[in-house]
Amino acid sequence: MEVLQRDPECSRPESCSVLESVSAAAAGKPLCCPNHEGKVMEFYCESCETAMCLDCTEGEHREHVTVPLRDVVEQHKAALKTQLDAIRSRLPQLTAAIELVSEISRQLNERKNDAVAEITSTFEELERVLHQRKTALITDLENICGAKQKVLQAQLSSLLQGRDHIQSSCSFTEQALSHGSATEVLLVQKQMSERVTALARHDFPERPHQNAHLDCQVETEGLRRSIQNLGVLVTTAAVAHTSVATGEGLRHAATGQHHTVTVTTKDKDGELVRTGNAVLKAEILSADGNRAAEAEVTDNKNGTYEVGYALRSEGEYSFALMLYGQPIRGSPFRLRAVKPSDVPQSPDDVKRRVKSPSGTGGHIRQKAVRRPSSMYSTTKKKENPIEDELIYRVGSRGREKGEFTNLQGISASSNGRVVVADSNNQCIQVFSNDGQFKMRFGVRGRSPGQLQRPTGVTVDMNGDIVVADYDNRWVSIFSSDGKFKNKIGAGRLMGPKGVAVDKNGHIITVDNKACCVFIFQSNGKLVTKFGGRGTSDRQFAEKLGPNLNKSGSVFSPHFVAVNNKNEIIVTDFHNHSVKVYSADGEFLFKFGSHGEGNGQFNAPTGVAVDANGNIIVADWGNSRIQVFDSTGSFLSYINTSADPLYGPQGLALTSDGHVAVADSGNHCFKVYRYLQ
After folding, report:
1. DSSP 3-state assignment of 130?
2. Which domain holds residue 284?
3. Which of 51, 272, 457, 671 would give a disulfide with 409, using CB separation of 3.0 to 4.6 Å?
4. Which residue intervals correspond to the NHL repeats (predicted)?
């Protein structure tokens, strides 16, 4: 079509020759061979899929299969027509896609305009309120000044009047004495004496009746900080066709039971989206098209979402998951619900449950799943891995004993216990070194002894359990059996995340929100603090921007560990590094940079130190665990490929020398064999 629409008086010879050929073909004239002048193309080479003349068949195509052109014309016409029909059938799809993308583009512009209008009106209103306050302050200032001036002016008037009276009396008396005759002096003596005596005795208001104190104090620092963080732009790069859903609840459900499905959002290139706030909707419809159950979507704020539901009746259902109004990959899913008694028991069920010893049957205990090493043996040697294996994993998403929702910190005691901060369940769970559930404690609340969002946990020399409570803004101390003893840091801490205990029994707390580290005595007395917001060696990064949290910020220092020299090791999340300080908080050195290579980090979180001083770091964004020597030189990594991590948080070394990691994204903790 392009050739036929070109200007016939074309200056490009190749275009002209093609145009002539097409024109000739359209007129039914035989085509001339471009390689042999004057020869007509009447043969077809099947190997090269091209027309040619007789000379061509005897030349470069002599070893190819050639047939008369007229014999293959109809065959190729039919093939071209089939191909033409196939691509023509795509036109409605492309038209629909154009309309959809155009509509999204229109909505995007519309929402941008709405947001601009909202921002403009909000700030205009703030300007109006500021102007009102300015006017009110100036008015109050004028009133106060006017009242003070009135008092002072009245006093001034009285003093001036007194001064004038004295001056006039003095002048008159001096004149009488100097120039008056004896008779005149005697005539006015009595009157003048009384006047002078009265003036001498008169109590003039010589002391000030007011002061000049009138200042305006405007505290702007906090307001400026608030203004700098005012407004959050909420968006995400997630798209439906690359986002996926996983979980048994996609296909099978037991009636009357709560089921969850995990949706992992991805961008157009299939890369994981690490932020929340995507618009995800779930709908479960029965065979007759009616809504069968309400599905609840929980945003984990890390790019993943939990969709929970419960079905009352058996049957076949359609389970649709829509991201920004578009179905995610595989949606809608066919969901079948059966009675709980009809659910087949899996022999290798990860969640093997036994009745509680209490005999009530109401509580359950989750047993650790020990995996034989042969399951994970591999013939391919990885680059410099520590030869280890996953010993066991404990947990899945849930609220029962041995289940977790967004677990964060993890610690280990010298008497063979593993202690886990189950953040979104507002409790602490304790297990044995081999993964057996032992106890759970914690009540949700904001009073002393209650937990609102436990993030960091450690065990001190006395066996007491020390818990950093991010939302309560303090550190709680419990006995080894879970009884509340004390809280420290209230009024000082803004958002404690990681916690550790040094050789002196001091409690070292990472204040994630204040971007600094506090060192307390066990009784709560502050020893010192260090750090601050920034990118220098002594500071911790604060990331500002949209999609982060209510204030528009994500704060940086996360977890802390103490080595055998009593040095403090802190993970700096947004500086993608690990920083080492003396026991007094003096900066010593740091290691790490942003990336995926050996010794690089994509937002480090958990940290632990082994008996040899080696530093073990959870690399959250790269979902791996790396090992460094005491100077920060990369040694190796722990091979977690058998059961991949997803957003690891806290790290700890158990008393029997294994590495325990809080695998937050998978709602479990895992224990790996580790060769020191």
Report:
1. helix
2. 239-338
3. 457
4. 393-434, 438-481, 482-523, 556-584, 588-631, 632-675
